Amino acid sequence: MKGTVLYEVKDNVALLTVDNPPVNPLSDGVRTGLYESLTKAEEDDSVLGVVLTGNGRAFIAGADISEFGGNVEGVSLNEVFQKLEHCSKPVVAAINGIALGGGLETALCCNYRIADKSAFVGLPEVNLGLLPGGGGTQRLPRLAGPSKALKMMLTGAHVPAKKALDMGIVDGISEDVVNESIEFIKNKADSNEEHPKVRDLNSKMIEARGDDKVLLEAQAMASKGRKGQFAPGQIIKCVEAAINIDDFDEGLKKEGEYFLECLMHPQREAMIHIFFGERAASKISDVPKETNVMDIKKAGIIGSGTMGGGIAMCFANAGIPVHIIDQDEENLKRGVSVIEKNYDFMVNKGRLSPEQKDAVFGLVSSSLDYKDVSDCDIVIEAVYENLELKHEIFKSLDAHVKEGAILASNTSGLDIDSIASVTNRPELVVGTHFFSPANIMRLLEVVRGEQTSDETLATIMAIGKRLKKAAVVSLNAPGFIGNRMLFGYTAQANMLLLEGALPHQIDQALESFGLNMGPFRMMDLVGLDLGWRARKLSGKESPLHAKIGDELCEQDRYGQKSGAGYYNYSEGSRAPNPAPENEAVYEKISSENGFTRRDISDEEIVERCILALINEGADILSEGVAQRAADIDVVYINGYGFPIWRGGPMHHANAMGLDKVIEKLEKYREITGNDVYKPSEMLVNLAKDGGKLGEAPQKGDRKEKLGFEMSSVANNF
Ligand SMILES: NC(=O)c1ccc[n+]([C@@H]2O[C@H](COP(=O)([O-])OP(=O)(O)OC[C@H]3O[C@@H](n4cnc5c(N)ncnc54)[C@H](O)[C@@H]3O)[C@@H](O)[C@H]2O)c1
């Protein structure tokens, strides 16, 4: 059995310490230990009260996710909670560190809760497609009120101790939580007071009865922040039951039913796949675990534009001093003032105090002189996407920055090996592809060059964690992982437009599937002119899929930046309005290229775009550009707005069944005559044995197949 509970008696108080490193999840050994220790405390007449705490930095971080789907051994969580709630001696939870999910639910079964001042509490089950099924949906609203409880459960937020006190979740805060809790429970045991049980605190439920406002607000919040997800609606139903059903145990029963529905729902599997996928992504199969990680004390950024500013904020937010260099004084001033405005915005929203802003913004310095980054442990270049310019900058950085420091490029698609080749330290050169806005988007594609050392990679993965990014390794290949897939996907969206569908129909179909933003809204946002200009410069003819976009550019319709693209935009607004005047362009280009425009169903739109993603993803995997299918899913969810509840394109393919995927690919290959739909060899081979997309082939295969020829993949965006 995993984990245990240490039992000791101090001053007539039984001290129960959950011991299941590193974060004390409620594994079978912990549940059994809790049950037995409570029995022991009840049977010992000298024990007046019980203190429950955790060993190390966590109180209890939650359920043991590795037990999901298997046979649960030992005492069940429900039995432990009943024992705790009905304990014959008063119990206080001494919340010494994080108390999440089942951890907070455990504390809610105690009579009292005291938190260390650095502790956090939360019910983040929604992030795994679940609801707090250990009574959390029934008990938390009784303490915090239904509105605040719903907000906490629907966001899955970690609430700091001070706020938890204000919300009524804990009764006190302490700097010496175990000793003060011992003192506290002794006093309570000595008093004649009745020891409260959260289940009996009904006043906030009765108050909320007959008023739908709270539930309607929660529904609005869920449909905005968790579009398409199943669990949020179930959470709201649980709280509705808590409000309206007098009998607490009836409410618990409802919670159990709704929980089971979540557990059986495919979204749960998809979201847990991503939870584990993000953790797995940080492991690089051929980089030994014990590889040295460099100490990054100061970072440098070259270029104070859109990306440079956002990346600088990531470092400052993580408490790492960061120095920004730009060649242009005006741009530098503007870049730094954008950073300050972003922090001021957070202060205005109450997310930062003015003191916190001063502290974090104080970590950002700037100048025009490359010498000022010479003492940095890492320097990230984020200047214009131009290989010659990047060569120049890396030569200069190699000359100025101290020996042993990492030199990284934020390029969206240039050849990292070529960039590394101009330096005397290619082993310290790596791609760090942040996404825009870099201070918000979680994805970090880490591009591994031919000579990038294990130590450099391990350090970047560790930095990714410190910056709270979902870091995924990609080999140095055209478009890396994400942009290469995006290319195939948007090309198909454009082909659908050429064949007869309209941008708003395509966008709506894919947004209904769950994507954050349809491809035409996205192309308007990025700018249609980037690819068009690159093609004009190279003198190449537009490929079929780019013909309509290029014609729009000829008419000065570049997207949002010019107020018109596939859609029209009113001054100062990002809201897309239909552009019926474009339809004549669509008709003309379609007929010039031999297409008779036809009605295309939403089903065909979604299938063709998503199948293009899947097929490209399978090639990326078979070439070893990505290490594993889940890495591709993590990229696509965190960088490209793919719905987390579908688990990413690779998981979606596995869930559909690879034989089905192949059948559909063949169908569209026949309809369109387009080889984009020729099933990837990897899919065919896996489907033969009923397999699933998982690990990439071994490293040897990867290098052989790669051959970096810089294509124009990324230049299209
Ligand atoms: N914008 C995005 O959405 C995005 C997303 C991912 C990656 N990228 C990549 O990030 C990089 C930067 O893109 P951006 O959008 O932030 O560019 P940007 O145009 O907003 O900013 C570039 C900055 O670099 C400065 N600069 C140019 N030459 C310089 C030099 N020699 N020394 C110092 N500073 C110099 C410019 O003055 C400007 O301030 C590019 O490689 C781009 O492909 C961009």
What features would you describe in this structure?
- The structure is a single chain.
- The chain is α/β, with parallel strands linked by helices and 717 residues long.
- The chain has 3 domains: 4-264, 2-enoyl-CoA Hydratase, Chain A, domain 1, CATH 3.90.226.10; 299-476, Rossmann fold, CATH 3.40.50; 480-717, N-(1-d-carboxylethyl)-l-norvaline Dehydrogenase, domain 2.
- Helices cover 48% and strands 11% of the residues.
- Strand 17 (443-448), helix 18 and strand 18 form a beta-alpha-beta unit.
- Helix 4 (136-144) crosses helix 5, helix 19 (482-499) packs antiparallel against helix 25 and helix 23 packs across helix 24 (583-592).
- It binds nicotinamide-adenine-dinucleotide.
Mean pLDDT: 95
Q: How far apart lie the N and C ends?
A: 53 Å
Strand content: 5-15%
Rg on CA atoms, Å: 28 Å
Report the CATH superfamily of the largest domain.
2-enoyl-CoA Hydratase, Chain A, domain 1
Into how many domains do the coordinates divide? 3
Q: What structural class should be given to the helix and strand makeup?
A: alpha/beta
The best one-word shape is globular
Question: Main beta sheet: strand number and arrangement?
Answer: 8 strands, mixed
CATH architecture of the largest domain: Alpha-Beta Complex
State the CATH topology of the largest domain. Answer: 2-enoyl-CoA Hydratase, Chain A, domain 1
Query: If helices are DSSP runs of H or I spanning 4 or more residues, what is the number of helices?
Result: 30
Helical fraction equals 40-55%
How do the strands line up in the largest sheet? Answer: 13-12-11-14-15-16-17-18
Count all strands and give the number. Answer: 18
Question: Which hetero compounds are present in the coordinates?
Answer: nicotinamide-adenine-dinucleotide
Uncertain stretches of 5 or more adjacent residues: 709-717
Could you name the CATH class of the largest domain? Alpha Beta
